[in-house]
């Protein structure tokens, strides 16, 4: 199986490039600086970050990407020297600033891990509350964390491309081995590229132990491929899982503001859109106050409207291209032009009340026109939940080079 997939590496890498905002965003986009630290594919070793003196721990953490740091911050389970998230940890990591209070991580043994299998539903019972229902009765590895993050930003039009990427033998089914091997290849190739671009550390490559890659069956593997690992996925199965996950996270955000009601206010809609961005606090208040003043009689935003808008955000790159194609000199756009561009990118239309709310939020001078460049920049922050590269502090070798360039300019 591995050799067969290995022969298809060119196809796999082409597919990942095509996905765009998919797995490549989360596996290939970070400039990891490993500095000779051992990294098993898809695993984060607990003893690297929980032992030793504080200075060494700080040095270790400074060499990690933002996603690695966030995974370590929220992971509440340790098993066989590795860190894992629970399903609730994952939900918290994409909706909260900090993890839930805990004294220490839960260290699990083999018997406890196996007991989780019984509480893991089959994919036929998958729904939009899967992660919430499992709560802390499951484990998610770091590689799976990256995969799940990619699912949240993938447009539905990209679901088929993602499925074909995993379907390495082209039989329209994805089995457990294909799923694991493709994740393995993606991350392993990434480590190789990192070593080639690590400045003075380029002669040091991470030590990869292939035997450790799937040493434990995680909740995701049990859910998708069964306890025996002999089940496979059809495209419909794959689509349903990805759509359910996107919907579950959006439901979690929506219900936080709806408080049991069927709609959220336009003001709360603005708060949701701005919550993962680096908008300055004074600008944030200006956005909120603008909505208060311009929409005194609120009609509310339903969950279906909110979900449709978030699915549009997953097509943000296509929207940006469409806007550049039929606007000139980066001029602001009208609601009619906005509607047209959305329909071109997604094949669907957005509710007029929702689009009006968007314009009231981002139309600074109230002339009915939207500066789409500013809108796109802020919405990209929202889409990637603060993980955009320009939002992340440069570290390691890249920070050193940046510092030298700054000093030379001065």
Describe this structure in words.
This protein has helices at 2-6, 9-19, 23-27, 47-50, 54-62, 66-74, 87-95, 110-118, 130-134, 142-152, 159-166, 176-196, 219-225, 235-258, 266-274, 281-294, 303-313, 316-325, 335-346, 352-362, 372-383, 396-409; strands at residues 77-79, 82-84, 106-108, 174-175, 232-233, 263-264, 301-302. Helices cover 56% and strands 4% of the residues. The strands form three sheets. The protein has a three-stranded mixed β-sheet with strand order 2-1-3. The chain contains 22 helices and seven strands. Its main location: mitochondrion. Pfam families: EF-hand_7. GO terms for molecular function: calcium ion binding. Keywords: Calcium, Membrane, Mitochondrion, Mitochondrion inner membrane, Repeat, Transit peptide, Transmembrane, Transmembrane helix.
Short description:
By secondary structure, the chain is mainly alpha-helical.
Distance between the termini: 56 Å
Shape: globular
Backbone CA Rg: 22 Å
Structural class: mainly alpha
DSSP strand count: 7
Instruction: Give me the number of helical elements.
Output: 22
Question: How much β-strand is present in the residues?
Answer: under 5%
Roughly how much helix do the residues carry, as a percent range?
Answer: 55-70%
GO molecular function, one term: calcium ion binding
Domain EF-hand: 154-189, 350-385
Protein name: EF-hand domain-containing protein
Subcellular location: Mitochondrion inner membrane; Mitochondrion intermembrane space
């Amino acid at each position: 199986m591995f050799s067969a997939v290995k022969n298809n590496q060119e196809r796999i890498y082409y597919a990942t490039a095509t996905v765009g905002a998919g797995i490549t965003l989360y596996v290939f986009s970070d400039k990891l600086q490993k500095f000779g630290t051992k990294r098993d594919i898809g695993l984060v070793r607990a003893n690297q970050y929980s032992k030793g003196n504080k200075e060494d721990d700080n040095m270790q953490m400074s060499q990690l990407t933002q996603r690695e740091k966030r995974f370590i911050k929220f992971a509440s389970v340790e098993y066989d020297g590795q860190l894992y998230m629970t399903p609730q940890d994952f939900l918290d990591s994409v909706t909260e600033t900090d993890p839930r209070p805990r004294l220490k991580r839960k260290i699990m043994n083999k018997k406890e891990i196996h007991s989780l299998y019984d509480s893991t539903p089959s994919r036929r019972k998958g729904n939009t509350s899967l992660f919430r229902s499992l709560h802390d009765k499951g484990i998610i590895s770091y590689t799976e964390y990256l995969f799940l993050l990619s699912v949240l930003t993938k447009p539905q039009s990209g679901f088929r491309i993602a499925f074909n990427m995993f379907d390495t033998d082209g039989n329209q089914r994805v089995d457990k081995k294909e799923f694991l091997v493709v994740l393995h290849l993606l991350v392993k190739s990434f480590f190789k590229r990192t070593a080639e671009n690590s400045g003075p550390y380029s002669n040091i490559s991470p030590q990869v132990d292939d035997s450790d890659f799937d040493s434990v069956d995680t909740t995701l593997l049990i859910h998708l491929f069964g306890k025996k690992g002999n089940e496979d996925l059809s495209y419909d199965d794959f689509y349903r899982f990805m759509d359910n996950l996107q919907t579950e996270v959006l439901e979690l955000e929506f219900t936080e503001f709806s408080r049991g009601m069927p709609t959220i206010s336009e003001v709360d809609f603005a708060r949701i859109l701005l919550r993962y961005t680096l908008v300055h606090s004074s600008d944030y208040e200006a956005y909120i106050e603008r909505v208060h003043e311009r929409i005194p009689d609120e009609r509310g935003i339903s969950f279906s409207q909110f979900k449709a808008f978030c699915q549009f955000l997953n097509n943000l790159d296509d929207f940006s291209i469409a806007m550049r194609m039929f606007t000139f000199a980066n001029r602001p756009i009208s609601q009619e032009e906005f509607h047209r561009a959305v329909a071109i990118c997604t094949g669907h239309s957005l509710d007029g009340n929702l689009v009006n709310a968007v314009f009231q939020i981002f139309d600074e001078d109230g002339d009915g026109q939207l500066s789409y460049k500013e809108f796109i920049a802020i919405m990209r922050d929202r889409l990637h939940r603060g993980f955009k590269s320009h939002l992340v502090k440069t570290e390691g070798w890249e920070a050193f080079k940046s510092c030298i360039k700054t000093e030379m300019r001065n």
